[in-house]
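Lesson 9: reading folded outputs for more than one chain in a single document. The general rule is that every protein is listed as its sequence immediately followed by its structure tokens, and records are never interleaved. Here is the first one.
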Amino acid sequence: MKTVRVANGQAFWGDSPSAPVAQVRGGDIEYLTLDYLAEITMSVLRKQYERDATAGYAKDFVGLMSEIMRECIERNIKVVANAGGINPEACARALLEVAEEQGIRGLRVGVITGDDIMGQLDDLLGGGVSLQNMETGEQFDTVRDRIASANAYLGAEPIARALAEGANVVITGRCTDPGLVLGPLMHEFGWQWDDWDLLSAGTIAGHIIECGAQASGGNFQGGWEKMPDLAHVGYPIIEARANGTFIVTKHSGTGGAVTTATVTEQLLYEIGDPTAYLSPDVTADFTSIRLREVGEDRVEVSGAQGSSPTDSLKVSMAYPDGFRGSGMITWAWPDAIAKAELADSILRTRLDELGLSFRQIRTDLVGYNSVHGRLTPPASDPSEVVLRVSVWADDDRTVRRFAAEIAPLVMGPPGFTGLLAGGRIQPSRVMAYWPALIPKSAVHPQVTIRERA
């Protein structure tokens, strides 16, 4: 039975730059998937695009491809990445320039567009689509005039279409994470778009490997201290078959481990209702599958069931919502916590006396209460503690005035050991997230092939 090996080499923008290279050079694979986008990433890319119309994509991807492009083409390893961000065409042009510079021929880039619906918002509203915040219920008119980006989550179909048209690199903008894997499987096996069990299997396979080394022991809560050689952790690979069963594995000789426990932990990541994992392609039932270890670092997944998807697509929108700033100072023993708390009290008193208006001000003592709060008292007076104060305000001038009040704290309370903020705090624009639903019929993905023959 035909087997297709799909490897994931990137869980997020900023993940290990060596992981994709190791996936290509560590053994036989047919596909390399790379996931760069998160909700906050789209906001960052939108700000870059506003400053430079040739930007707006994950430029790290181009640097990576300059290293592995020739190998991928020569070995017929196809690359599928959502590195296009809000400017997939510019990303494709950058890849073609790399091919030109390196004298590489045979590059065929499938560019997927259509997820950007900024120009359709008014028509959607006029057609009765509310675009209300699907998490809070807030009405869209409270943010309409500030929306800076709006991208629908596309499914696997345009990826499969690009591969069918001969692309050996597929660049998408906003799409579902599992779609990066489901698209290649749909293309390779010719699955029908209404065979819900097979689409569910492909979606679950994509979900298991979308977060990189999380599925292979890199972020394992059930025995992290015994996980071998995490410095060289192997990223996960799917060995898929046409009947919908697949094996989760990794390249031999790499660190970490693939077990039923590591795979189960990743299965539970960000899924909501496990019986109804929603995607544009299928509603997958994560409770239907069975896991079985069939060898070292080999877990078989079978029995996937699914049902028809909803008639909606999720849209991720971003809008500017004030400015933020954060400053950190370290105080040393003795009485490090008491000194930091006094410094925070001094700072807040001075800010109040200045009449500054903040939407939010937050204090953390890093190493003591910044994650879970004060769950337990410290066993003893710690050797040091970091005071971190963060503010959110409507304007940048307020944040700058806050920044001016942080620095004087180095003169007292005593025990100051250094500013950790790298100098004077600079205000940063806050890009807020607005999720909504729109009809699928409103989005029409396009596939364009760019090539250097």
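And here is the second record, again sequence then tokens.
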Amino acid sequence: MESDERELYSVGEVAERLGLHVRTVRNYVRDGRLKAVRIGKQYRISRADFEALTSTPDSADGAGA
């Protein structure tokens, strides 16, 4: 298991990378827009889930509302 595959980000790290407030990222997690795992009282976001949020939905599940 390489560290690249298992890399986890905190809510603060994701917020910093996206230029968003920490509360906004937490709301994304609670609303289901960003997948996260809760460890204790903190959320951790996998690299794949972070990239899924930042990528544009071409032919994935972006079917529109």
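What the second record shows: The chain has three helices and three strands.
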